[in-house]
Design goal:
single chain, alpha/beta, Uracil-DNA Glycosylase, subunit E, two-stranded antiparallel ribbon
Length: about 210
Amino acid sequence: MTAADFLPPTKDLDDLAAAAKGCQGCDLFRDADQAVFGEGAGSATMMLVGEQPGDQEDRAGRPFVGPAGRLLDRALAAAAVEREPLYVTNAVKHFKFTLPERGKRRIHQTPTRTEVVACRPWLFAELEAVDPDVVILLGATAAKALLGNDFRLTAHRQEVLRLPAGDDVPPVDPTVVATVHPSSILRGPQERRDEAFQSLVDDLRFAASLLNTR
């Protein structure tokens, strides 16, 4: 069973979001508080795709509202990209975590390839519904979800990419750009955070510049 078994017959974003709440396409729904669907403008020219909701996103039911989301907001502002007209989502809709000790904070776990593929029909449906001109993939999980498991993010930053052909790939043709996930900056060495943040800003600025070449 995958998310495809729970997709509604339409590609309306409200219908998709409602249907995603009942998704049991992988086991992640068992422990997460809720499915966290994408949000933003249905006619957005730019879509940002992260890995999965974090602890705060899982509790709030909205993507990119935790520490990584706040850092992303700062980076978007520094790159002169407004967040409101964007569409933001994740490759996986349920929070995967471990709970080392009772009462302790839930610790993020990277989704497996199987979990990413099981959830991918939601992302494909969002791509088809929004049909953005530019897609920014934030982090390795998001990049591999759309560009294949062999994709290496560090080798392709600030490179213009395209979605691979495939029977299950939606009939859209956005310009694709891959960059780091904001959470990787927060987890990185303190002394390198300013440099890593500026690199993210540069990547976002590069992606925004591609809107003028479509």
